[in-house]
Design a protein that fits this description.
Helix 2 runs antiparallel to helix 3, helix 3 runs antiparallel to helix 6 and helix 4 packs parallel to helix 6. The protein is built from six helices and no strands. Helices cover about 80% and strands about 0% of the residues. The protein is mainly α and about 210 residues long.
Length: about 210
């Protein structure tokens, strides 16, 4: 099997686009918490649909990878990047499921900020992967990866601020249980950004090894 060089890059780009769609839906979900249960339910379903679509693209990528004699990038690199992108999508879905399972009805300012940072990181990830096939755009790709890493580094402080606010005032047992649920929710939001950073680092490794 000798697929066109562009087919690998097209599937990688499509994979990252599903992640970005999921991240955008997650931002709308966070903005809908405590506002509209119907919107939250619809957005959870939208994220699940994007995850299913991303899984199919991942399967297509891995099938092509296993059957191809020649690949445009090192086989292990394509495999690693595919799994990293998948991890971002899975982390987005974890946030959506937690909102439903934990019955999250309100979040703080930092949660909205984390969701916005996720969209920013995933937007850059999608742009970086789209530029991967053009060697003349390597600097642009590296710059985007560095920006993703900086976003993730800033998100850690935002997450800790969100968690700290949960324990600034004492409350009853119900308040303590809510604080535990919200702590997990904020940690899951930051996990998406960690996964995005890992994808960016894999991209940087690919660029270095193919320079």
């Amino acid at each position: 099997m000798l697929p066109k060089r562009s087919e690998f890059f097209e599937l990688l780009a499509a994979h990252s686009e599903r992640v970005l769609a999921g991240a955008n839906a997650m931002l709308r979900l966070v903005n809908s918490l405590g506002v509209s249960k119907q919107d939250v339910a619809a957005l959870v379903e939208e994220i699940n649909m994007n995850e299913t679509s991303a899984d199919q693209i991942k399967a297509d990528l891995l099938t092509m990878l296993h059957k191809s004699f020649v690949t445009p990038l090192n086989r292990d690199q394509v495999y690693a990047l595919t799994l990293d992108i998948d991890s971002v999508m899975n982390a987005v879905q974890d946030v959506a499921q937690a909102a439903s399972i934990y019955n999250i009805t309100e979040v703080n300012t930092e949660s909205h900020e984390l969701a916005s940072m996720t969209v920013d990181a995933c937007t850059r990830l999608t742009r970086a992967i789209a530029s991967l096939k053009a060697k003349e755009r390597n600097k642009e790709t590296v710059d985007l990866c560095v920006e993703i890493e900086h976003i993730e580094e800033k998100s850690v402080a935002v997450m800790y601020k969100a968690i700290k606010s949960l324990f600034d005032t004492e409350g009853d047992e119900a308040a303590a249980l809510r604080a535990m649920r919200m702590r997990q929710f904020y940690s899951l939001q930051e996990k998406v950004l960690r996964a995005s950073k890992k994808s960016a680092q894999t991209l940087e490794e690919i660029l270095l090894q193919n320079a």
